[in-house]
Amino acid sequence: MKKTIIIIVLALLASCGARAVDNPYVTPGNEIALKTGLEVLIESNFAVLQGKRVGLVTNPSGVDRNLTSTIDILAQAPGVQLVALYGPEHGVRGSEHAGDKVESLAKDPATGLPVHSLYGATRKPTPEMLKGIDAMVYDIQDNGCRSYTFISTLGLVMQACAEAGIEVIVLDRPNPLGGIQVDGPLVEDGFYSFVGMYHIPYVYGLTVGELATMINEEGMNRGQKGTDKPVKCKLTVVQMQGWKRDMLFEDTGLPWVMPSPHIPQASSALAYPCSGIAGDMNGFVNIGVGYTLPFELFGAEWIANPEELAARLNGLGLAGVRFRPIYYKPFYGGAAGKLLKGVQFYFTDYHHAPTALLQFYVIEVLHDMYPSRKPFTGEVSSKTMLGKITGGSKILELFSKRYKVADILDYWNKDREAYLELSRKYYRY
Fold first, then answer.
1. Using one digit for the tens of pLDDT, what is the confidence trace for 264-314?
2. What distance in Å separates the CA atoms of residue 147 and residue 230, rounded to the nearest whole number?
3. Given this model, what pLDDT does residue 167 score?
4. Hey, where are the domains in the chain?
5. Using alpha carbons only, what angle is made at residue 303 by residues 300 and 306, rounded to the nearest 5 degrees?
6. pLDDT value at residue 355
7. CATH code for 24-261+416-429?
8. Beta bridge pairs of residue 365
9. Which residues make Cβ contacts (< 8 Å) with residue 176, sequence separation at least 6?
């Protein structure tokens, strides 16, 4: 009897071990680990790609939890022929600075595959770039903010593939801001740009797979230049498993690989929509870019009393966020080597904290303390970066009258309920 029990126990242990080996994405002690779309694709034996010639839009953030690149995974996938790579802003290997044009490479050094740039001579794949492709795979970690250019690249890829009759396959990934926060008005007519390509809020509350589906189904993609007819591609989203809408990236158990140079940590993604608009206000304040805490700071040489600034901001009683005084010297950029004084902000409850509005509260207090300092001057048009980033002129027109957040709240929130009603139709989680 004892011998029989031992044999049964050993068999059970062996079967458990086999399951652990067969599924590399199960964390020990956690049988329901979150799996990205890439990992679900791998576990399906690349079912949706079998027998296809595949193009891949990706960057260094396209990895599995073992940090193996999507490029290497698809290059070795049985039954799949990876034939070309396509690089967004910063390039396939992430070697380019923000805003720098990315040149196409004859070959990717690691795989020998041709590399086409989608942030250089063209931002939309040309018919020549798409020759020989049956399906285009998109796998990039997004940051959940409208002005982050990867979703514009995705949209243009969807346009080009719709026109060429090529399927688009999005490998879904977590929205690092979660799927609850929605913040800011929709883009105004006349203000669409590569940093505001779609009729969505500044913080849009969807995964990239959900957003792609909404763009496709709601006719947000337009056809070739000179036409206004919506184009719709054949779209497949490989869904994640285990993701929930209230998850921030730190809740996922996944490694963070920076999708762009100024988003080195998941905390940088959380902070990005909270300060990015202020960072484009004619050098009014430094937001930590050029220092070790990009997007997490507000600082300037002319801020004489950062302790008072922090106290006043904390005195506003804003939900879910606290401020502390900070002194720092950026090591590159326009403020390199200068002693800046200001505040660093911390989230105590991100889901209830202001996101994009946070920077407007900071500007309000700074203007009250230093009224001679003006955060922006001149007309806000569709040709200025502030117009492009904010997706319109009305917010800054209203705000610049007294620099009071109260003056923009109604306009800021006017589209929220209608957008939520629309976007909820495309929730997958």
1. 999 999 999 999 999 999 899 999 999 999 999 999 999 999 999 999 999
2. 22
3. 98
4. 24-261+416-429, 266-392
5. 110
6. 96
7. 3.40.50.12170
8. none
9. 141, 142, 143, 144, 248, 249, 266, 269, 270
User: What is the predicted pLDDT for the residue at 163?
Assistant: 95
Tokens (6 digits) for 339? 């002693």
pLDDT single digits (tens) 159-173: 999 999 999 999 999
Dihedral sign, CA of 249, 254, 260, 266? positive
What pLDDT was estimated at residue 21? 40
Residue numbers in the chain where pLDDT is lower than 70: 1-32, 93-106, 223-228
pLDDT recorded at residue 9: 36
DSSP secondary structure string, 17-48? HHHHHH-TTPBTTBTT--B-HHHHHHHTTSGG
Q: Which residue has the tokens 């309920």?
A: 417
Pair 348, 322: CB distance under 8 Å: yes
Query: ∠ CA(57), CA(59), CA(62), 5° rounding?
Result: 90
> 3-class SS at 4?
helix
How long a stretch of residues is the chain? 429
Cα gap 426→429, rounded to integer Å: 9
* pLDDT on residue 90: 77
Q: Is the dihedral of CA 147, 150, 154, 160 positive or negative?
A: positive
Compute the distance between CA of residue 331 and CA of residue 342 in angstroms, rounded to an integer: 16
Query: What are 59's two structure tokens?
Result: 């960057």
CATH code, 266-392: 3.90.1150.140
Adjacent-strand bridge partners of 87:
117
pLDDT of res. 98: 52
- Please tell me what DSSP assigns to residue 292: S
In angstroms, the CA 75 to CA 63 distance is 13
pLDDT tens for each residue of 34-85: 999 999 999 999 999 999 999 999 999 999 999 999 999 999 999 999 999 9
What phi and psi values does residue 232 have, to the nearest 5 degrees? -130, 125
Cα 3 to chain centroid distance, Å, stands at 57
Would the CATH topology of 24-261+416-429 be identical to that of 266-392?
Answer: no
